[in-house]
Design brief:
Blueprint lengths: L1 H38 L4 E5 L2 H14 L11 E3 L4 H10 L5 H9 L5 E5 L6 H13 L2 E7 L6 H6 L2 E5 L4 H24 L3
Parallel strand pairs: 1-2, 1-3, 3-4, 4-5
Helix pairs in contact: 1-7, 2-7, 3-4, 4-5
């Protein structure tokens, strides 16, 4: 068990280092886009499946409540939380439409859509980003995989932050680290340091 713990730590660190080497500029670019979106009165719509759904909720909570600074709320919505909407769309249409219909209802041109998919191939996340682009929203995605392009999702988004590994647990570990970094960068840029 101790060997497993040591290897897991090493692989998690390797995944973070590989991400930073490839995507440091993209991370800062996304933080700046989030700041611009919020300063212009827009909101951030965040969505994904499974662990990525939990990440969407976690990140939205950090923006609306606080991350490191006690400050006014920032406009962010996780599209993963309303079970009535999700189950009615899934039942009446398709699970593939659960995010795209919410983006159609809530998204505006001044908003930012942030899709999260460890594979870059989640059909409902892809459809959500496609609809956001049709509306004129800016789009960003967090993905994973060794190809480096983030799959189909990465090819259609304005900004792709891809974690270059195939191990889902390490992709998810890096995603939450990225999400926390984005929250910190946005808070510091908008509110300064307290």
């Amino acid at each position: 068990m101790e060997q497993i713990v040591s290897e897991a730590l090493i692989n998690s660190v390797i995944a973070k280092e590989a991400f930073v080497k490839e995507s440091r500029k993209g991370l800062v670019e996304l933080a700046c886009l989030m700041v611009l979106t919020l300063r212009q009165g827009g909101k951030i719509l965040i969505f994904g499946n499974g662990g990525s759904a939990a990440d969407a909720q976690h990140m939205a909570a950090e923006f609306v409540n606080r991350f490191l600074i006690n400050r006014k709320p920032l406009a962010a919505i996780a599209l993963t939380t309303d079970t009535s909407i999700i189950t009615s769309v899934g039942n009446d249409f398709s699970f593939d439409e659960i995010f795209s219909k919410q983006v159609q209802a809530l998204g505006r041109e001044e908003d930012l859509a942030l899709g999260i998919s460890t594979s870059g191939g989640s059909v409902n996340v892809i459809k959500g980003v496609e609809v956001a682009k049709e509306i004129g929203m800016r789009t960003a995605v967090l993905t994973g995989g060794l190809e480096g392009d983030g799959g189909e999702l990465g090819r259609i988004a304005d900004i792709t932050l891809n974690v270059p590994t195939v191990k889902t647990q390490h992709i998810q570990e890096v995603h939450i680290w990225i999400e926390h970094l984005l929250c910190e960068l946005v808070e510091r840029e908008i509110f300064g340091e307290e």
